[in-house]
Amino acid sequence: GLFVTDYFTRTPRKLSPFRSFASIELFHFHIPEDTIIAIWNLITFKEQGGTFGDQCPDRSITVYFRSGAPSVINPLHTHFPRDTAIPGSFALTLTWILPNRTTGVFNVTSPLPGDWFLAAHLPKDEGKISVKGLYEECQYLFQPQLIVQRLVNIAVLYPGYITEQSIAPHNRSCLYKVFVPSYTSRVLVEVLQCHGAEGCPLWLRVRAKAPPLHNSTALDCREHDPCRLALDLPFWQHWYYVLVEKHPGVPGTVSFQVTVQLTDCSRPSLARPPFLTSSASMNMPHSFSSAGGLALGDSPPPTSPNGTKHLVPIASSTGERCWPIRPTLRNELDTFSVHFYIFFGPNVSVPPDRPAVFVINLLPVLDSGGVLNLELRLNVSSLCGENVTVFGCLNHEVPLMSVDNASVTCETEHLAGFLLSVNATASLSRLRIPYPQTGSWYLSLRSLCATEHGFEPCTNVTAEVYLRAYLSPCINDCGMYGQCKLLRTNNYLYAACECKAGWNGWGCTDNAEAFSYGFQLLSTLLLCLSNVMFVPPVAIAVRSHYLLEAAVYIFTMFFSTFYHACDQPGIVVFCIMEYDVLQFCDFLGSLMSVWVTVIAMARLQPVVLYLLGAMLLSMALQMDRHGLWNLLGPSLFALGIMAIAWTARTIQRRHCYPPTWKRWAFYLCPGALIAAAAVLLYAFVETEENYFYIHSIWHLLIAGSVVFLLPPRAKPSGRLGPLPRRKGCGYQLCVNEQEELGLVDPAVASINSICTS
């Protein structure tokens, strides 16, 4: 055949350590129909400071693949909420080949067409809280690329018509496809008039949606005569691919005929007409169809391609029957908030002699990022004392309506489904499917009576069931200890839970590492009450007539207390304002405390400096509230002003300022050491686990440093007499005791200080 190659790529994205599904990077691809092979080229590279990160450690990268919807992953092995179905996916781990780059290749032969999703993440880290901009962070970037090779002009088989074909010696196989419309209960593929060097050396393989694989449904025509392959309960509204493959090593040409027969379950006494109009066989809505669900046409057959000849007789199927399918009304309330209402519902009557079948249509792409919820509640009073059990089978793309009562199951060899059951003892049953595949979901309800020999059909008992089906963003809105987040990757939307207070799991229901109520209360009290340490700086500032500084310290103490009361991850939370307002005021108060303290140490009184600091800090916080230099810049600017003021006083007095060793030894050095220790704890020690007590220590140290660094009040006084000379040990001592302690400003009192070495 003729192959066409398509190429798709995505922009590189930075990967994050896994905490929840909200921390993964999701990539969306679309694979066209008739694709023979799909090759994903997975490129990963390191960056640090805008250059290649050769010094970055090697961290494994896990990539997940799933068709139809995003993968439901659980790398931390947490517990899922009750009644949750977990769809499968494929995962692989990338290892590093080069110091700063690695490439992985993932091939999928005959992939399913439609949407494919890739999810990638780094391993979970220790949860260290790093200051933004303190050092160049190692970044791990991931870029997937997709190359698909698809066949064009695949021969189409028309049901009921014979197609003649021959396989030349240099060829190995022939590929066909046939469209299976709705209300088809059986697909029968048959190879006729097979002639070859060794009888009929052919393999017959059939697969839905994509070309067959080596493990697809197959039949060896050498061992079966006639060579017929039947598939019960095929997927509706999909292409089925038929591969006729020659055995290896068979010489010569092999000629054969191939035909397909479809059984129409909507008309038990009639078989599917050999040809349907395109509108009837492709996308004719159920509401516009005939009583059987399809508008069957009597138009003449088309021009027969691929050697199609005469009709073959189709045996009528009297044992196959499908029941009417009741549609549901879609009511969209919000993103991933959709209710499916049943006409004349929500109470559904399940008769004893036939199942009740409903269809739920999920829109492509739009609905696969949420959670499909199904709830069955049995009205026990409708059972009339009988031991009735109502079974529900939820299947994708085809309803399962088995009449076998011995084994109640929702699965066949080619079809998987979900089973629900309700009875008088357990009258409620729920099912949750995160990230469901889109398309049609069919729910079949049957009522059976339990006996000593198993389940048997009930007599004269019509069970009544309350049925509720809806689409939600997250499971139970992530509960009390989680937040449901709406995420976006390019034009695709999906929702995921972000858990807090040690809770984990898909719906934040795993409490294996959860914080107890006492622990949450203790952490909240520590973070809030540690701000009481600002009371001594306030008292000292008021006593020294630093009223502006005292007001700033009170502002900081107030907003820091209520910000941390609102910032808690658990249930011990108290917010007096919006979170963003409290955070801004807390950060502004902390930086303003540093600013006014340093300006007070410089003994500069102009109010313009305080206003300048407030404006600079507000601008810095608005630009980046967590940026290092946006916060450190104004503080260094204030320290520069203080250094200039101290240098000017030193030159003016011709000795060091502050001039005495007592001020340095008992106030400045201890205060500077305490402040430096607080900064080191904040920048290098804080993690998510120790945050509540390390940050409380930070509050204590910062407030304690202000107690030592805030200078005493400058008191005007008269002319003071000389004091006796004293010698210091390696330091120049001033005779004036008050000036020695920094109590006198040179502009207020003129004192002749006599200093000795």
Write out key terms for the chains shown.
single chain; 757 residues; alpha+beta; Jelly Rolls; 4 domains; 6-stranded antiparallel sheet; 6-stranded mixed sheet; 10 helices; 36 strands; elongated; disordered C terminus; membrane; transmembrane helix
Topology:
Layout: E1 2-9, E2 13-14, E3 25-31, E4 35-48, E5 51-52, E6 61-67, E7 90-94, E8 101-109, E9 114-121, E10 138-152, E11 155-156, E12 161-167, E13 173-180, E14 184-195, E15 202-208, E16 217-220, E17 227-232, E18 238-246, E19 254-264, H1 278-281, E20 308-311, E21 325-326, E22 328-334, E23 337-342, E24 347-350, E25 356-362, E26 371-378, E27 388-396, E28 417-422, E29 428-434, E30 439-451, E31 454-457, E32 463-472, E33 482-489, E34 492-499, H2 517-529, H3 535-543, H4 547-566, H5 579-601, H6 607-623, H7 628-653, H8 661-685, H9 691-709, E35 733-734, H10 737-740, E36 755-756
Parallel strand pairs: 11-13, 21-25
Antiparallel strand pairs: 1-10, 2-10, 3-9, 4-5, 4-8, 4-10, 6-7, 6-9, 12-19, 12-20, 13-18, 14-17, 14-19, 15-16, 15-18, 22-23, 23-32, 24-32, 25-30, 26-29, 26-32, 27-28, 27-30, 30-31, 33-34, 35-36
Task: Give an overview in words.
The chain is α+β, with helices and mostly antiparallel strands and 757 residues long. It has four domains: 2-152, Jelly Rolls; 155-264, Jelly Rolls (Sandwich); 340-472, Jelly Rolls (Sandwich), CATH 2.60.120.680; 517-709. 21% of the residues lie in helices and 33% in strands. The strands form eight sheets. Strands 1, 2, 4, 5, 8 and 10 form a six-stranded antiparallel beta sheet that branches. Strands 21, 25, 27, 28, 30 and 31 form a six-stranded mixed beta sheet that branches. Strands 22, 23, 24, 26, 29 and 32 form a six-stranded antiparallel beta sheet that branches.
